[in-house]
Design goal:
Number of domains: 2
Strand content: 15-25%
CATH architecture of the largest domain: 3-Layer(aba) Sandwich
CATH superfamily of the largest domain: NADH Oxidase
Helix content: 25-40%
Shape: globular
Structural class: alpha+beta
Length: 509
């Protein structure tokens, strides 16, 4: 392990505070009487139904991700487009039950199926829908109007003051704190960010599938956007923005005049349980990241979490055609956390396809935005993949290759580290997302923690989708003994494991 010195910083303080240690975890019994609702509603507000019977394209997921065809820059979205986008991003895809309780499956992954992330949309020129701010009601597949009229000037001012053309659509992704905190307590901010990254990835893929241009950002005026969305910042906060660039000049309200507050009942819609417990560490780390990173050319040094061997990297260049069994729509509808792994190997083509999925860069990334994806490095613990010796590897994205860190069998040890969740040992590969906490703090301040955790969520969701398309099982893990994971992987003293995603063949149903 490299020797480095670092002083305590907001990122490291929070991460260390919320790190699990073997033998020191307090018993935590879930208060089932106060289980948070996973559906946000605005009582008494009118809902505008979105059409449910809409046709999707038949392309495969890989074609959607790789497509370089011209995007529709000048077409305004209509209600059918909105329906498709929301259905694929976070729509209900099925339901199950246990002991009388009904559980609804969604197209997006979420830690503990607690779904802290909500999604709002601001429209400007959408066909068949008045301009305004809406909340997407997942339970009803409908939109609830929160603000009526052209408010694009306020949106542009908060998201990007230099934006002179009104976005056709602007999506806001928020997290309701108590939903995840009910189970994960102080550690829950990790899951708020990770789950927001999951949902953002689905949204980006849905926009690509409809051939709409998009840009997204984790940087904006937090207080202004939270107020615009009508949020009580002690309970729910905006974490990401994604918008569809438009062609019309920004117009509407004078941004020098403060926009009116939404009603108290709108703010209270963030209350999801009769008795909610606040965890100060969550609000503290979020507030420490309120300062927006400057948009100047911030060059983040390469995240180097381990010492790579000097031997020649192993080529895992992705194939032109992935071995997919589902088209992209079927992939979203059938995405589940499947962990009934069988101890069988995955093919080299499967592994190369997964690596290719992770290595793709966003076509829609803002030209003057930070390259958020550089805040995270990907490692692979390989045990049962054709053509790859067992060991721990670091992914070299630019070359589509793996650099070996250590040889050996590590899945059983990692399973023990992941709170002894035995099913992990039968997976073929563990993908691990890593960062350097000291570098994040030095270059981005506490907001850098948001970047890395949401990027980890995006990459994890991309693995979920790619694995599902190819008929493989996939399940993400955010719970592990942090220091033991660092020791096993041989991370530098300032580097940390953020997220683990296990993939492998599963039993046929």
């Amino acid at each position: 392990m490299k020797k480095q010195t670092t002083e305590n910083t907001p990122c490291s303080d929070y991460h260390n505070l919320t790190s699990y240690q073997r033998g020191k975890m307090l018993m935590h019994f879930l208060d089932w009487e106060n289980q948070p609702s996973v559906f946000k509603t605005y009582p008494g507000a009118e809902r505008i139904p979105l059409p449910r019977d809409v046709r999707h394209r038949e392309d495969s997921l890989s074609i959607v991700l790789k497509s370089q065809t011209p995007i529709k820059k000048h077409r305004y979205p209509d209600m059918a487009d909105l329906s498709k986008i929301f259905a694929l991003t976070c729509g209900i895809t099925g339901k199950g039950g246990h002991e009388g309780a009904v559980h609804y499956y969604r197209s997006v992954a979420s830690a503990g199926a607690l779904y802290p992330t909500e999604i709002y949309v601001c429209t400007s020129g959408a066909q068949g829908l008045d301009d305004g701010l809406y909340h997407f009601s997942i339970a009803h597949h409908a939109l609830t109007l929160l603000r009526k009229g052209d408010v694009s000037a306020h949106v542009a001012d908060a998201v990007r003051p230099t934006l002179h053309k009104a976005p056709n659509l602007t999506f806001f992704l928020s997290a309701i704190f108590f939903r995840s905190a009910w189970k994960y307590k102080e550690r829950s901010y990790r899951y708020h960010l990770m789950d927001t990254g999951h949902l953002l990835e689905n949204l980006v893929v849905a926009l690509k599938a409809q051939k709409f241009p998009f840009e997204f950002s984790f940087d904006f005026d937090d207080h202004t956007l939270n107020r615009f969305l009508g949020l009580d910042e002690t309970k729910e906060v905006c974490l990401a923005v994604c918008y569809m660039p438009g062609e019309q000049p920004v117009k509407g309200m004078n941004t020098e005049e403060e926009i009116a507050d939404l009603s108290e009942s709108a703010k209270n819609a963030s209350i999801v349980s009769q008795k909610e417990t606040d965890y100060p560490a969550v609000l503290e780390i979020h507030e420490q990241g309120l300062h927006e990173t400057a948009r100047s050319n911030v060059e983040l040094p390469t995240i180097d979490p381990v010492d790579l061997k000097s031997e020649k990297p192993i080529d895992v260049t992705g194939p032109e055609i992935w071995p997919e069994k589902l088209n992209y729509e079927g992939t979203f509808l059938h995405r589940r956390s499947k962990r009934n792994y069988v101890p069988k190997s995955i093919t080299h083509t499967h592994l190369a396809s997964l690596v290719q999925a992770l290595s793709m860069k966003d076509r829609g990334a803002c030209s003057d935005a930070l390259d958020y994806q550089n805040t995270v490095r990907t490692g692979l613990i390989v045990e049962n993949a054709q053509g790859i010796d067992p060991g721990f590897y670091l992914l070299i994205e630019t070359k589509g290759s793996l650099g070996r860190v250590n040889s050996g069998y590590f899945l059983d040890i990692m399973t023990h580290i992941c709170l002894d969740q035995k099913w992990l040992a039968n997976a073929a590969v563990h993908f691990v997302f890593l960062t350097d906490i000291e570098i994040l703090d030095r270059y981005y301040g506490a907001r850098g923690y948001r970047y890395a955790m949401m990027v980890s969520g995006r990459l994890g969701e991309r693995l979920y989708l790619a694995a599902t398309a190819m008929g493989l099982g996939c399940c993400g893990i955010g719970a592990f003994y942090d220091s033991e994971a660092s020791q096993l992987l041989g991370l530098t003293s300032t580097s940390r494991l953020l997220y683990l995603v296990a993939i492998g063949p599963v039993k046929s149903i």
